[in-house]
Amino acid sequence: MSQSSIANKPLGRGLSALLGSDSLIKTEEKNQSIQTLPIHELAAGRYQPRESFDQEPLDSLIASVREKGVIQPILVRPVYQGLANYEIVAGERRWRAAQEAGFTEIPAIVRDMTDLEALETGLIENIQRHDLNPLEESQGFKRLMDEFQYTQDDLARSLGKSRSYIANSVRLLSLHDEVKKALKEGRITAGHARALINSEFSQELLQKIIRNSLNVRQTEKLVQRTHARPSPRVSISPFSAQDHDEDSQQLIEKLRDKLQLKIDLDLKDNGSGVLNIHFNSFEELDNLLSKIMSQVS
């Protein structure tokens, strides 16, 4: 696919029948009228960017379909695989809702489409409806780049997004699986996730973000502080190491277990030294002071 052909062909061609104005729908209907198709002849799309459907919105749609029927037609393309004669390109939620509501037929627009057009259309429909979670959107972008040779500039131009938006979205796929799971489940936002992309402590930081209900700005500061701090170590002079290494190591481990915080011990030759206890939030400081005061009161 040439760069010029991509630049000149916007994503989501034909989505007017689902998302656009009445005049555009009429234009589409001149060439492709709305048909009523048996539900059992339809199959879920192979290029559907959504991986999951939230049950609560789906239940609401089922109730609406039972009351008013399927108002907007779905978009399908002809296929010949198994028992299915059509593959859904856009409107899988409406199809699922119609099945759950007991319908045996559904209104649809049938259009011959390539695999690329099917992926493009499914992706742009869901983006315009804000139906994709950040990872599903990222995976959609990645598929267009990997399978259809789109560049980030091509996507930005076609979707009306900035190149940095596309780049930041795709970078989410490099996150640790635990962070991606939290993002998918809505326990953190895409802003939180982006702050953790280059952090080697992402799993540890994730728990602090969730536990302390940090916003994105607080998360960014937490990541900066974490990467600015020295790596855990116990600095002991040769004399101290010979006489006190075992005792000091045990002390540090006991304190770490007790306080659940990062601790550094720096011992001097004369036996003096500095004990550093690190905390990452006011809540951790309050907990630390409470534990100390409970021992001296």
Automatic annotation (TrEMBL):
<keyword id="KW-0238">DNA-binding</keyword>
<dbReference type="InterPro" id="IPR036086">
    <property type="entry name" value="ParB/Sulfiredoxin_sf"/>
</dbReference>
<feature type="region of interest" description="Disordered">
    <location>
        <begin position="223"/>
        <end position="247"/>
    </location>
</feature>
<dbReference type="InterPro" id="IPR057240">
    <property type="entry name" value="ParB_dimer_C"/>
</dbReference>
<dbReference type="GO" id="GO:0005694">
    <property type="term" value="C:chromosome"/>
</dbReference>
<dbReference type="InterPro" id="IPR050336">
    <property type="entry name" value="Chromosome_partition/occlusion"/>
</dbReference>
<keyword id="KW-0159">Chromosome partition</keyword>
<dbReference type="GO" id="GO:0003677">
    <property type="term" value="F:DNA binding"/>
</dbReference>
<dbReference type="InterPro" id="IPR004437">
    <property type="entry name" value="ParB/RepB/Spo0J"/>
</dbReference>
<dbReference type="InterPro" id="IPR003115">
    <property type="entry name" value="ParB_N"/>
</dbReference>
<dbReference type="Pfam" id="PF17762">
    <property type="entry name" value="HTH_ParB"/>
</dbReference>
<comment type="function">
    <text>Involved in chromosome partition. Localize to both poles of the predivisional cell following completion of DNA replication. Binds to the DNA origin of replication.</text>
</comment>
<protein>
    <submittedName>
        <fullName>Putative chromosome-partitioning protein ParB</fullName>
    </submittedName>
</protein>
<feature type="domain" description="ParB-like N-terminal">
    <location>
        <begin position="35"/>
        <end position="127"/>
    </location>
</feature>
<dbReference type="Pfam" id="PF02195">
    <property type="entry name" value="ParB_N"/>
</dbReference>
<dbReference type="InterPro" id="IPR041468">
    <property type="entry name" value="HTH_ParB/Spo0J"/>
</dbReference>
<dbReference type="Pfam" id="PF23552">
    <property type="entry name" value="ParB_C"/>
</dbReference>
<comment type="similarity">
    <text>Belongs to the ParB family.</text>
</comment>
<dbReference type="GO" id="GO:0007059">
    <property type="term" value="P:chromosome segregation"/>
</dbReference>
